[in-house]
From TrEMBL:
Signal sequence extent: none
Membrane topology: Multi-pass membrane protein
Protein's name according to its UniProt entry: Autoinducer 2 import system permease protein LsrD
CDD domains membership: TM_PBP1_transp_AraH_like
Chain ranges passing through the membrane: 18-36, 48-68, 74-92, 99-124, 176-196, 208-241, 253-270, 275-294, 300-318
Cellular localisation: Cell membrane
Keywords: Cell inner membrane, Cell membrane, Membrane, Transmembrane, Transmembrane helix, Transport
Primary location group: membrane
The keyword Cell inner membrane belongs to this UniProt entry's keyword annotation: yes
Record has Protein biosynthesis as a keyword: no
């Protein structure tokens, strides 16, 4: 097979949307570098990648449930709740860090399990189930914290965790290495394991997957558990990066996680998509916002342009699907 034939095969296959996602990210980065010379510097790129990593963490979980035709709207307060649990259980003490991390991830896993059981076993629509859980978590967080997340209780991230997240290894931020680890895990899980093949089978046709012997309900529950864990992980990373939690910390990441997944070429109907596309989608979203801020565009203008760019990318995907 010639190089040209190989290229045509890739462009005609499921990897085409991933290439589009990276092309969109590259276009915005190049445009920013032309308009603002410092935009393309390593310092600027490093900052944008770190910010994109937070979207990438929640985007990993969102992508997994979207692959089976679901959605997770509980992410904002899973993220926020995990951040609060981490700081209030550790009290800023290094010796309490392992238990605090386990508790924070446990919150995400427990919420994900509840979501998965509700969707897979009780037949509750994913939108209703996860939105309801988000409301429950918001109420619990506000009630237990009395609307406060910091103060004399020393609710700060322990120093070892902060050093791990904001530190560098050979000049590369540790946050990006952690994101690379997540990307590797998700990619291997979906492409090199039997479980991954079952995920795509369920996403493409749940009925056919069931008849082929796939445990559709079990796969769905596991994916929602992983979604909760990734949201909790994002909360841990954010609180370590910023030092302490704040109420509403996870609110911006609901739209951004869904947008990164869709811009990254994952089919919202399920059964199609790769995490490397979500990585590109996360970078694209951050690059758009950074460029608009550099241009001093007012917030309302940023929101309009931000939405239009996302819609333009999705329109491209729609045309591509219609041409198939």
């Amino acid at each position: 097979m010639t190089t040209l034939e190989t290229a045509k095969r890739v462009l005609a296959g499921p990897h085409r949307r991933v290439l589009y996602a990276f092309a969109a990210a590259a276009t915005i980065l190049v445009a920013g570098a032309v308009i603002h010379p410092g935009f393309g510097s390593w310092t600027s790129l490093r900052t944008m990648l770190v910010l994109a990593s937070f979207i990438g963490f929640v985007g990993a979980g969102q992508m997994l449930v979207v692959l089976v035709g679901g959605i997770d709207l509980s992410m904002p307060w899973v993220l926020n709740g995990a951040a609060i649990v981490l700081t209030t259980s550790s009290l800023g003490q290094s010796g309490r860090l392992p238990l605090a991390v386990a508790l924070a991830l446990g919150v995400g896993a427990a919420v994900g399990l509840a979501n998965g059981l509700g969707v897979a076993w009780l037949g509750v629509p994913a939108v209703v189930m996860t939105l309801g859980m988000n409301g429950v978590l918001q109420g619990l967080s506000l009630g237990l914290s009395k609307g406060l997340t910091c103060g004399s209780c020393a609710s700060y991230a322990p120093e070892p965790l902060r050093r791990l997240v904001v530190g560098r290894l050979f000049g590369v931020p540790s946050e990006l290495l952690l994101w690379a680890g997540v990307a590797l895990f998700v990619t291997v899980l979906l492409t090199l394991t039997t479980f991954g093949r079952r995920v795509y089978a369920v996403g493409n046709n749940p009925r056919a997957a069931f008849l082929a012997g796939v445990g559709v309900r079990g796969v769905t529950v596991v994916l929602y558990v992983l979604s909760g864990v990734f949201a909790a992980l994002a909360g841990i990373m954010l609180v370590a990066y910023g030092g302490q939690p704040s109420l509403g910390l996870g609110d911006p990441y609901l739209f951004e996680s869904i947008a990164a997944v869709v811009v990254g070429g994952v089919s919202i109907l399920g059964g199609r998509g790769h995490y490397v596309g979500v990585v590109a989608g996360s970078v694209t979203l951050v690059a758009i916002v950074t460029l608009l801020q550099a241009e001093r565009v007012p917030e309302y203008g940023r929101n309009v342009i931000y939405g239009l760019v996302i819609l333009a990318i999705l329109f491209t995907y729609g045309r591509e699907r219609a041409d198939d």
